[in-house]
Structures are given as structure tokens and as C-alpha cells.
Task: inverse folding
């Protein structure tokens, strides 16, 4: 019984917005299955009463003053845009409203 | 005058201050060397000859005008292509960023420029720093100057190979699970991962935000320390930056005195799976430290065995989110924009075409680990293991000042050897990963060649948080004692590269 | 597209509505949530961006301290507990106007939680429980090109402006609101309206609903009358005026009731509110594809507001608007109706300021509500944009009190002020508006009026003193209104011997 099925991998690809081909799915699914078996070893550690660590160091309250700093120019902002129009980023039609 | 490319940064500085060489000459010598050998090494993705020579000329002018310059002013450097440099192509080794020229400098790059360091160009790396061999670069593999049929390590293989090929005396790497230290070990050079937060991540294209650390690479300990000092320190643009003075790394590298230093050999990082030649050189180096006055004991870090699985949950989780921004909307590659395809479709097609296999694997693994229903078992549990590994370190540092291990279980392997076996590839980083999870400092220093293959072995030192100077203490002591043994530095034993042009 | 709906009365006869309201407020900080870019509304596209808010590779966020302070203020004003330690989290989903394809937000550790507030509808007070208030960032803005009227459907492409991306947002989420069905929509409206006043009083947001700085999502579900089981809810997005909140809630009640009454099932989905047609339409279905994969934001360290800081903020909070209103009404002696008019006319703050300058509340109300609010309304302006402030109102009233102006002339002075003709004194001079206080001029005018109206004088003399009113009118007309009517009456009465 694999730890992850081909269908689940296809679902992950949709969530991650990657248009995987069937051939890639065939290739990736068993590899992911192996990797998940490896990483699943973390469950062997008894850690019920252990607090999780999300940050390497225990810093808190790092904030900046509410002041303005110079922006990019619109030319700089748009310099990498695959397409631009009217000083805006031109993107293909959007299917769904947010 | 002898070949400028064989000099250390410290020696180059002496030549410049004494007027025997200019920065332009030194820069040109390195550009020539790149032209001569990089066809076979392929350390660079982009060489910025014009920019480098202009920077060098500016430093020469300042020097001529009597301006006070830093210890590395005018010295050339190779920059890993994962840091943004304004106006210079920055790809992170990925097709998805091909041709992107950032409109801003990373903080590390700003500091390099402020120190007068001359940036020669951008070095090759595994795509988005995911890998241990540079084979995952979208722009081809970098070759190890010690044996061109072998990988130089990764992800920062380009930076370390550039040092070993004498294409640059200094380089910048970034270390998420060993990407500075492992290539350092494989190329017989010095690679330092500073304390997390000791060097700024601003402008470092993120792989795993809670692990990534930029750091110095060089052929000698003192050069690395000087570079460390130039780039480190608090940055208000990085919320995880530590607001404390930079540890006295240069002083430590100059003194290199391990008398009375308590050194712990990590029991769990050795034995089965470790190449005998690697273990032999490592243990000899430990002996040497004892002779030099260090007190060596064995220390157990029982949770290190879970570091690799925890790492391969935390890293892909963060990476899956960090890499979501590459969606063809604002910069970089755009595929399938035919006027009919939707934005959603174009995102899917672009990410399919623009990301390589390893990147896709890790994005999907991370997406899985964060999914509702799996979070607690995977990401949540990995974070608890992270706590346990931090506690292992804390316990160890109650007994010793630094921990040591081999930097890698093996020496550099042949190109293609592990290319389609992700797990074998992941195991390269067994020794280096625990430090990234805990956030403390570590480095790899050359400690000889393995008997089996005559390839470099790295000696791994792990210091507590913000005690980075201890790395240089150990590195410098080893370096001078070994040089005495060998009658020169390890790099002197590297084969001469064939000059192709 | 139009769904079947029941009449609201029929709907409420069979079902009880359950609501939840999520309000997004844009803070009025100078800079964005995580970078130093300005937050001005209406700037040319992509002129207020940097690597951070554009989500460029390598850029990192740093939290705006004032945004945190504002969040704490809002939390305290809503009687919330303030977290001792909380983190930001990434909410992962792809959308072209979201630069990083994750929103930096808060998930299970909001900065403020477990609060409550009250609203008054038809004299009845309703308590609303607050689930949480958390910090997050706004998205960019897309313009859809090539389709009909800028709608997303049928567009050929879109243009994105990231000026708004990264502006600090506070999301305020209520617990489920269960009030009598016939009050639900009004309570929803009153809640959003109360929030607006509160946020203005706190000074944390401009709350310009027309500019989208306060946006409401309304969750509505129905359960059969008397039942304890909640029904399936819908989330109606971007309901952006008080009136729309009321209308959208009413619409969803009637639509869902029609679905349920015909034996159908309400679909759990996002719905879009259409201001023009007054209906909601189906957006995307909530599916498993919507897995936001929240995890703690590794680029930001936890926020741990010290108790000292929280108490300092608490002590700086202004009086709660609802309490203050009750107090002011009592002090001013206004009726409920008068007070409601003042509040609805946005005249509360100007009246407070005018009263502080020594004007009686009644006079202040008369000018602000009777004169200035009317003028603002006629010209389609905001009251505070008229160019007349409490100081001018107080000055005019002082002239009235001194007998230099009467109400009618004062109105003309206000007209001049609105038209920018200068100070009240200058306007009086320019327009020749001063009251004539010279008795001889008035007596001359009275004599002329008596001479011109012998019939009226006759009536007065024959025992009908009330007829003298016509003479006063004639004198006032002769004086072109610039006479104190009481003075005229006094002099006239003396002349006529009544």
C-alpha cells in the first residue's frame, strides 16, 4: 500500500499549480511515495509534550516605525513584467473572482 | 610576478597596498582565468566583466586618492546566483527566472559593494538551491576541479568550484541544509554557515526561510573570516536578523588557538554509511586538535537521526510556499499566453515548463505536508523534532565548546551517480542538516584527501548560536597544523586544470 | 441568473436566520503592513510598490509597529483579550493580484479574540460576540479589459496595479449572530455602521467605504424555526455599504428560504453581491481545492505585546462611541429622533467641536444639520469638505447673539462661506448683510409702511392688533431683511400705540 497514490499526487499538482504530464506523474508518484516513507519517520519520535519550533531563534517583536521609504519607479516595478499595459501588469484573463 | 589567481585575498590586499598590483589587474587576471578554464568547470552562469572592471577601477581610484579602504577592497568574488544584484541577471539556477534582472541589491550584495569587493559574476547552483550536486541546475552541471567527472557538491557547487579552479579567491554561498559546507568539503575549500540571523537574508531568493543562511567561502580560514566580517551584522530589512555585534571572527582566525577548547565528537555522525577514507581523515584531524591542546570527548545527540526526515518536511513545506510567487504574472518566464488561455492555465503551464524535477518533487512534498489532514503528522511533528534537535545541541554545549563531525559521509561522487535517486542524494546532508534546524553556526574546513579516491574531505565544526568565532579558532588551528604536515595548503595538491582557451 | 426568492415575511415565518459578519478594515497607517511604501488612495498605478509588496524574489517583510498598535486598539475597543504571543501565518492560494501567492495573515493565533460589542436597533440593544480581530495585508487591484463593463466574465485580459498590495488590513470576525429574524438585516447594518463610528473615533482608519477601506463579507444560513441545527451557510463577499449589508442579508434569507422551501439544498459557496440589481450570484464552491495550507510565517518573528504596552494603549482609548453618544444626548437634551438625525447626518463631531467653542447645542445643531448638512447634501459633498468648520459656525452664532445678524442673514453668510467669499465679516461687508440697528432708519421705514398700507392701519385701529404683522413684513422687505424683526415690532407697536 503506497503512502501516496497517483491520484493524490495529481491533486497536489493541481494545488501547487503545476501542469504535470502523465509521464511525469508516473515518474514522480513512486519517488514521492519513497520520500514520504522516509520523512514519515518523524512519527516515530515520541513528542506529544514537546513544543513545536517554527523559527530557528526565539526573537519576538521585531517591528519598524510607520515611516515611508522610497518606492521603486513604475519602470523598475514593471521591468521584469512579461507584459505591461497602461503602467500595469498585463495578465491573461482571470477565470474566477477572488 | 607570480600568478595573481593563486593568491589569497590577504595576499592580494598586500599587493595592492604595496602598489605591486592594481585591482584592475587582479580582476582581469581572474576574468582571464575564467575564460581559460570555465568551459570545463562551468562554475559561472554569468560573468560581469564590464561591471567587475568598473568596480575594480573605482577602487583603484579611491586607493590612489588615499581613501581608507577595507581589508578586502579590490579583491574579486564569485556570487551565488541566488542573491539579487541590481541590473545583473539572477536566475537561482532556474529556467523560470531566465533573463530576470532584479531592480535591487540584496543586503549581502550591498555590503560587498560597500566593502569594495569586486563581483565577478554569478555562480551556478542547483535550481532554487535544491540539491547537493548542481546537477539540478537548469543550466547544466558544474564540474569539480579536483576531478571534472565528479560533481562539486551543491547547491553552491559553482561558488566552491570557482574557488578550487582559482577563478576567484572569495565566494558567497547560501546554506539551507549544507549548501555551503558540503561543496566546501567536496572541493577542498573553506565554507562557513554563520549563525541563522547573523547574515541578512534580504535579497536571498528564499528556499526555506527558517533555514537559509548566506555565508562566506574561501580557500583559507582567514580569507573566509574577513569576508564573514564584511557581510555579517544586523539588517533591519530582515526580521529574523540578530541585533548584536558580529562575533570576533577575524581575530579568532588570526589566533587559531585551541588550547583548552572542549571539542565534542558527535557519536551519531559516523560509522555505517561513511566512507573509510573520510572517517580516517576526520579522526586524524581530531587527534591533531588533541595534540594542539584541545580536550576531546565523545558526545551523543540522539535526535540527530531524525534531522533528515524533519528537514525534508520543513524545507519542502516552506519552499512550496516561497516558490508560489513564480507564476508568470510579474516577472520571469511566461508560457502559453496565447490570448485564449486563462491566467490560471498560464500559471500551470509556466510552472510545469519552468521548474525542474527536484523542484516539482519538493513543491509537491511540501504541499502534501501542509495539507489539511496531514499537517499535524508531518509539518507539526517535524517542528517538534526541531525542538528536540535544538535540545540535543543545548545539552551538548553544556559539556563542550564545539561539536565536530565529518562534513559529508563521502567524498565527491561521479556526475550522474545519484541523479535519479533523490533519497541517496538527500543523505549527503546527514551531517550538515542538524545545524540548520537549530540555527547555530557551522563550517567545513579541508582536512586531507581520502585514500580511496584522492578527493578532499571536509572537517565539520559546529558552534553555538552567535559563537561563530569558535569555528575560525578550530579552522585556523587545523589549517596551520595540516599545512605544516603537508608542506603547503591542501589546494596545492589539486591537479592542474587544462587551459582550454 | 436570478434565483427564486420568497417574500421576506414568508421566509421568516418558516426559518430563523443565523449570521456571521467578517469586516475588513484598511488601516490609515502612513506605510504598508510590511514595507515602507505609502498607502495613498488613487495614486497612479504601480507608483507605490517596492520589492517587498511586489513579492519580488528575495524580498522580506517587516511588521509596521503602528499597524500592530491599531490592531490592539481595535481589539480593546471591541472588549477583546489581547494575545500575549501570536504569530503571522501564510494563507496559500494562487491569485494574480496577490504578489506572493500567499497572503501574510494570522490563523489560529489572532492578536485579539473573545470580545463583544453592542448595537441598538429600534431602541433595542443587541449584543454581538466578537470571535477575533487579526492582522493581514491587502491585495493588488485588477482591471478587467475587453469584456462588458469591466466584469471579469468575458474579459480578454486583466491589468494589475499593486499599489494596494500590502496595505494593512484588520479582519474583524463575529461569532454567530442569532437575533429575531425580522431584526437580522437591520442588526447587520447597525453593526457595520457602529464599527465605522468606532474605527473613526479610534483614528485607525479613514473608513471610506466608497474607496473600499471597509469591506464586509456576510455569512448567512437558515434553520427551520425553533430548530437547533444550523443550516448550510453562504458567504456573500464585498458588501460595501451599510445599506447593501442590510439588502444582501435580506436577499440571502429570501433566496435560501426559497431553495429550502422547494425541497432543495443550500450550496456552501462564496456568493457575489451586485449593488445594481440587489441580488447575489454564485461564486466558487467551497471545495477541497480550497486548502489554504496555513503555516507560521517564517519570515516574521512572533508578536508579543507587553502588558504595559497594552495597558498604555487601553488608557489612551477614546470613550466608546455608543457610550459617548448616550452621554452627549443627555448633556445636550436632544430627543432620540434629534440625536439620530445628528448621527445620520454625520454632524456629531462638528457639533461637539462647536459646542466646545461656546455655542449652545441647539444652535450648533440648527446650523450643522439645518444649514450645512443640507448644503452638503445638495452639492453631493461630504460635510467636512464644505470648507466651513466649527470655528466659523461659532463666529456666525456670536454675531447672531450680538444682534448683528438674524438667522436669515446668517444663512447668507454660510452661503458665502461655502462659496469661499472670505470671513463672516468680509461676507457681511461684501453682501451688505449687517442688521440695521439705527432706530431712525427703522422709524423711517415704519413710517413708509404705515403710509403705504392705510387699510392695515385701519384694521389695527379697529381692534385687530394681529394685523400689524403685515406691516412688520413690509418693513422687513423695505429693509431687505437686514432688520431685527423683534426691534421692528417694538418700534411699530410704539408708533401704533398698541
Result:
Amino acid at each position: 500500500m503506497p503512502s501516496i497514490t497517483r491520484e493524490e499526487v495529481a491533486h497536489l499538482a493541481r494545488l501547487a499549480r503545476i501542469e504535470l504530464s502523465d509521464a511525469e506523474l508516473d515518474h514522480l508518484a513512486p519517488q514521492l511515495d519513497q520520500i514520504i516513507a522516509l520523512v514519515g519517520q518523524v512519527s516515530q519520535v515520541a513528542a506529544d509534550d514537546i513544543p513545536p519550533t517554527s523559527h530557528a531563534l526565539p526573537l519576538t517583536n521585531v517591528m519598524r516605525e510607520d515611516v515611508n521609504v522610497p518606492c521603486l519607479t513604475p519602470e523598475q516595478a514593471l521591468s521584469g513584467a512579461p507584459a505591461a499595459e497602461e503602467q500595469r501588469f498585463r495578465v491573461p484573463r482571470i477565470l474566477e473572482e477572488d | 610576478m607570480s600568478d595573481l589567481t593563486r593568491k589569497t585575498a590577504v595576499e592580494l590586499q598586500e599587493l595592492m597596498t604595496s602598489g605591486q598590483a592594481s585591482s584592475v589587474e587582479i580582476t582581469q587576471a581572474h576574468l582571464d582565468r575564467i575564460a581559460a578554464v570555465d568551459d570545463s568547470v562551468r562554475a559561472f552562469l554569468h560573468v560581469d566583466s564590464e561591471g567587475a572592471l568598473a568596480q575594480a577601477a573605482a577602487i583603484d581610484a579611491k586607493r590612489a586618492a588615499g581613501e581608507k579602504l577595507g581589508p578586502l577592497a579590490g579583491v574579486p568574488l564569485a556570487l551565488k546566483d541566488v542573491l539579487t544584484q541590481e541590473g545583473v541577471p539572477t536566475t537561482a539556477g532556474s529556467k523560470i527566472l531566465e533573463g530576470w534582472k532584479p531592480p535591487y541589491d540584496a543586503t549581502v550584495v550591498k555590503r560587498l559593494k560597500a566593502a569594495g569587493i569586486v563581483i565577478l559574476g554569478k555562480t551556478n547552483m542547483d535550481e532554487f538551491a535544491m540539491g547537493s550536486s548542481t546537477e539540478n541546475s537548469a543550466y547544466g552541471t558544474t564540474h569539480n576541479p579536483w576531478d571534472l567527472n565528479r560533481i562539486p557538491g551543491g547547491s553552491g557547487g559553482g561558488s566552491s568550484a570557482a574557488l578550487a579552479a582559482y577563478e576567484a579567491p572569495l565566494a558567497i554561498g547560501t546554506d539551507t541544509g549544507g549548501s555551503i559546507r558540503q561543496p566546501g568539503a567536496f572541493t577542498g575549500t573553506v565554507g562557513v554557515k554563520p549563525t541563522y540571523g547573523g547574515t541578512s537574508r534580504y535579497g536571498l531568493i528564499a528556499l526555506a526561510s527558517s533555514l537559509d543562511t548566506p555565508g562566506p567561502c574561501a580557500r583559507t580560514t582567514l580569507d573566509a573570516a574577513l569576508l564573514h566580517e564584511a557581510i555579517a551584522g544586523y539588517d533591519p530589512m530582515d526580521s529574523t536578523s540578530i541585533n548584536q555585534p558580529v562575533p570576533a571572527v577575524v581575530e579568532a582566525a588570526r589566533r587559531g588557538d585551541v588550547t583548552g577548547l572542549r571539542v565534542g565528537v558527535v557519536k551519531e555522525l559516523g560509522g555505517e554509511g561513511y566512507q573509510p577514507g573520510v572517517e580516517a581523515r576526520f579522526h586524524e584531524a581530531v587527534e591533531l586538535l588533541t595534540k594542539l591542546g584541545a580536550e576531546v570527548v565523545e558526545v551523543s545527540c540522539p535526535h540527530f537521526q531524525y534531522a533528515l526526515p524533519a528537514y525534508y518536511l520543513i524545507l519542502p513545506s516552506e519552499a512550496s510556499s516561497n516558490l508560489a510567487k513564480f507564476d508568470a504574472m510579474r516577472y520571469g518566464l511566461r508560457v502559453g499566453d496565447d490570448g485564449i488561455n486563462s491566467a490560471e492555465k498560464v500559471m500551470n503551464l509556466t510552472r510545469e515548463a519552468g521548474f525542474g524535477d527536484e523542484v516539482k518533487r519538493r513543491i509537491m512534498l511540501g504541499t502534501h505536508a501542509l495539507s489539511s489532514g496531514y499537517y499535524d503528522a508531518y509539518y507539526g511533528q517535524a517542528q517538534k523534532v526541531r525542538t528536540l534537535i535544538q535540545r540535543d545541541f543545548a545539552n551538548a554545549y553544556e559539556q563542550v565548546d564545539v561539536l565536530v563531525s565529518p562534513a559529508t559521509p563521502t567524498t565527491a561522487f561521479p556526475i550522474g551517480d545519484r541523479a535519479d535517486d533523490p533519497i541517496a542524494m538527500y543523505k549527503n546532508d546527514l551531517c550538515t542538516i542538524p545545524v540548520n534546524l537549530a540555527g547555530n553556526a557551522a563550517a567545513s574546513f579541508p582536512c586531507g584527501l581520502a585514500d580511496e579516491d584522492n578527493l578532499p574531505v571536509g572537517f565539520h565544526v559546529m558552534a553555538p548560536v552567535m559563537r561563530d568565532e569558535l569555528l575560525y579558532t578550530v579552522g585556523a588551528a587545523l589549517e596551520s597544523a595540516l599545512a605544516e604536515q603537508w608542506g603547503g595548503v591542501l589546494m596545492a595538491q589539486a591537479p592542474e586544470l587544462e587551459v582550454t582557451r | 441568473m436570478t434565483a427564486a426568492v420568497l417574500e421576506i415575511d414568508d421566509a421568516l415565518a418558516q426559518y430563523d436566520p443565523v449570521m456571521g459578519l467578517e469586516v475588513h478594515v484598511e488601516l490609515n497607517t502612513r506605510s504598508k503592513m510590511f514595507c515602507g511604501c505609502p498607502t495613498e488612495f488613487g495614486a497612479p498605478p504601480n507608483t507605490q510598490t517596492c520589492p517587498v509588496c511586489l513579492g519580488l524574489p528575495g524580498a522580506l517583510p517587516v511588521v509596521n509597529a503602528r499597524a500592530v498598535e491599531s490592531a490592539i486598539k481595535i481589539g480593546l475597543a471591541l472588549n477583546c483579550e489581547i494575545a500575549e504571543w501570536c504569530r503571522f501565518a501564510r494563507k496559500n492560494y494562487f491569485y494574480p493580484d496577490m504578489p506572493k501567492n500567499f497572503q501574510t495573515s494570522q490563523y489560529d493565533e489572532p492578536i485579539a479574540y473573545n470580545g463583544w460589542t453592542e448595537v441598538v436597533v429600534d431602541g433595542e440593544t443587541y449584543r454581538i460576540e466578537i470571535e477575533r480581530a487579526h492582522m493581514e495585508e491587502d491585495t493588488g487591484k485588477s482591471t478587467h479589459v475587453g469584456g462588458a463593463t469591466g466584469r471579469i466574465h468575458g474579459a480578454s485580459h486583466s491589468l494589475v496595479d499593486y499599489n494596494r498590495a500590502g496595505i494593512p488590513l484588520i479582519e474583524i470576525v463575529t461569532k454567530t449572530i442569532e437575533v429575531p429574524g425580522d431584526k437580522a438585516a437591520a442588526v447587520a447594518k447597525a453593526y457595520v455602521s457602529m464599527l465605522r463610528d468606532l474605527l473613526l473615533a479610534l483614528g485607525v482608519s479613514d473608513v471610506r467605504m466608497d474607496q473600499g477601506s471597509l469591506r464586509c463579507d456576510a455569512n448567512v444560513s437558515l434553520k427551520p424555526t425553533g430548530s437547533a441545527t444550523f443550516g448550510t451557510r453562504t458567504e456573500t463577499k464585498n458588501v460595501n455599504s451599510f445599506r447593501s449589508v442590510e439588502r444582501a442579508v435580506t436577499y440571502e434569507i429570501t433566496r435560501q428560504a426559497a431553495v429550502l422551501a422547494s425541497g432543495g439544498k443550500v450550496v456552501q459557496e462564496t456568493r457575489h453581491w451586485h449593488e445594481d440589481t440587489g441580488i447575489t450570484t454564485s461564486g466558487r464552491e467551497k471545495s477541497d481545492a480550497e486548502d489554504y495550507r496555513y503555516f507560521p510565517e517564517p519570515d516574521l518573528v512572533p508578536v508579543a505585546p507587553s502588558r504595559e504596552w497594552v495597558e498604555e494603549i487601553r488608557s489612551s482609548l477614546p470613550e466608546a462611541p455608543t457610550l459617548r453618544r448616550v452621554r452627549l444626548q443627555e448633556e445636550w437634551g436632544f430627543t432620540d429622533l434629534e440625536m439620530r438625525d445628528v448621527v445620520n447626518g454625520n454632524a456629531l463631531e462638528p457639533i461637539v467641536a462647536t459646542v466646545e467653542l461656546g455655542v449652545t447645542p441647539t444652535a450648533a445643531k440648527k446650523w450643522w444639520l439645518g444649514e450645512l448638512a443640507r448644503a452638503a447634501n445638495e452639492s453631493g459633498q461630504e460635510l467636512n469638505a464644505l470648507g466651513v468648520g466649527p470655528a466659523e459656525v461659532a463666529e456666525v452664532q456670536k454675531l447672531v447673539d450680538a444682534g448683528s445678524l438674524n438667522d436669515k442673514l446668517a444663512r447668507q453668510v454660510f452661503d458665502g462661506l461655502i462659496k469661499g467669499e472670505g470671513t463672516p465679516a468680509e461676507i457681511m461687508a461684501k453682501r451688505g448683510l449687517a442688521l440695521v440697528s439705527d432706530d431712525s432708519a427703522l422709524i423711517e421705514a415704519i413710517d413708509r409702511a404705515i403710509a403705504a398700507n392705510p387699510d392695515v392701519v385701519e384694521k389695527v385701529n379697529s381692534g385687530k392688533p394681529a394685523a400689524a404683522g403685515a406691516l412688520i413684513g413690509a418693513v422687513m422687505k423695505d429693509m431687505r431683511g437686514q432688520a431685527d424683526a423683534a426691534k421692528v415690532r417694538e418700534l411699530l407697536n410704539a408708533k401704533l400705540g398698541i
Observations:
- Residues 75 and 87 of chain A are 8 Å apart (CA to CA).
